[in-house]
Amino acid sequence: MSEDANLMEKIVSLCKRRGFVFPSSEIYGGFAAVYDFGPLGVELENNIKQAWWKTMVHDREDVVGLDSAIFMLPKVWEASGHVSGFSDPLTECKKCHSRHRVDHMLEAVGVFADEKMNQEEVQKIFDENLDKLECPKCKAKDFTPVRKFNLLVQSNLGNFTGDWTKEPVYLRGETCQGIYVNYKNVLDSMHVKVPFGIAQIGKAFRNEITARQFIFRTREFEQMEMQYFVHPDDAMKYYDQWKERRMQFYVDLGIKPENLQWHKHENLVFYAKEAYDIEYNYPFGWKELEGVHARGDYDLTQHAEHSKQKLEYMDQEKNEKYVPHVVETSAGVARTLLAVLCEAYNEEEVEGDTRVVLKLHPKLAPYKIAVLPLSKKDELIEPAREILLGLKKIYNVDFDITQSIGKRYRRQDEIGTPYCITVDFDSLEDKAVTVRDRDTMKQERIAISDLETYFAEKLS
Ligand code: ATP
Asked: Per UniProt, where does ATP bind (predicted)?
């Protein structure tokens, strides 16, 4: 990762300029805390999700996938505790009327307020530290009383009464509730045995009070979650295993270990056995990338109680019945994407010029290869397109005929394409092309007939 103080600004600008991330509804002035992923952003997102799905589901024999609906019966959110307790402490600046998360304001002056505290407790700490606090926007020091603000987003789905606020339906605040309510279905329909996991990737929605730092904290976002159901006695053994695997996942995406750390939750909610977050060293500080939590039997017990269904597991071999404990791994797609971009962003001096290069892991790069005919003449375009069509069967390949070859190389560097193929007039004679490596900028001549084998080796 570059040490640049303006790194965040540069990444935001690159994301817009090169089609990774756009502000939502931008032609109307933008919609706060919602972003759209552009043509290259969606490729990068998909590659991250594919890497996650591969390690969490396809590489394993004990984890199955799920795609549950965004909408669920409101009772699910009552049982999970979200309707009563899924809230953040909010205050409003009386001068500029901007709203802020009290725990974040306190954190900025080194005071800790945890999510377990009730409104009165947070108010007390807030009052005790008032002299140190100021509005992050206008610097005024006059605030409304603290109130707990529920983060669940409501909708009128299926409600035709005209007053949907009385019986709101919620957009899911996290994907894992869909996993808990399908635990029994999976158990009954698949030949899974404890320990086993259910994994899911999907959208979640939260009315975040302050949504800053680009795509780090948004009101609509995507999660990659896995709940691993275990015998109560084995919970901590599996918890430690999952902690190790989840940290390795980010290293395997090309993130340097020194930019990752564990953060232990000191004040656990009553049912949790242990909770750690994986943090990444973002340009705005160490922040949560993923949570790995040992949740006990809380979630299944709550849903069993509220639904009046038995959610126990019967171990036929041991003739033992129990409610499994859950080890949860919960990551954000956009937070991973941002971490990967921060890690990959590099500026290098090349012949008196600055080269911006995204040194993305090849498995994450939106395009693996770009085919660049040296001239727009048909005699080069035709063989270049033939190469493109051959490689496109295997990889996502870009084809670019605009501007000088130097500018085209720079563009591919900026979007992280690992290899560029230049088709020149010599190619017509020697049936070979120049392949340029993004990171070393070294070029080598490769026979067209060898390209598939060459890239199979390089990109495997
Ligand atoms: P934070 O403390 O940063 O608000 P959290 O502890 O509420 O996060 P979890 O509920 O544990 O987050 O959600 C699991 C993961 O989902 C997080 O580690 C993060 O990667 C992602 N996530 C949560 N909220 C958001 C959001 N508003 N925008 C983007 N990603 C999010």
From this structure: 206-208, 216-221, 288-289, 332-335
Q: What share of the chain is helix, strand, coil (3-state, %, to 5)?
A: 35, 30, 35
Is the beta carbon of 331 within 6 A of some atom in ligand 1? Answer: yes
Cα 211 → chain centroid: 16
What percent of the chain stands above pLDDT 90? 88
The finding on whether 260 has its CB within 6 A of some atom of ligand 1 is no
- On whether the CB atoms of residues 138 and 98 are closer than 8 A, the answer is yes
pLDDT tens-digit readout, 419-443: 999 999 999 999 999 999 999 999 9
- Return the CATH class of domain 367-458: alpha beta
Helix or strand or coil: residue 184? helix
Q: Which residue, judged by its Cα, is nearest atom 3 of ligand 1?
A: 288
Q: Is the pLDDT of residue 4 over 80?
A: no
Do residues 134 and 152 make contact, with C-beta atoms less than 8 angstroms apart? no
Give bridge partners of residue 435 from the DSSP assignment: 421, 444
3-state class (DSSP) for residue 74: helix
Query: What's the half-sphere exposure (Cβ side, CA atoms, 13 Å) at 304?
Result: 14
Provide the whole-model pTM.
0.95
Q: Which CATH superfamily is domain 7-76+168-340 in?
A: Bira Bifunctional Protein; Domain 2 (3.30.930.10)
Q: Tell me which amino acid residue 25 is.
A: S
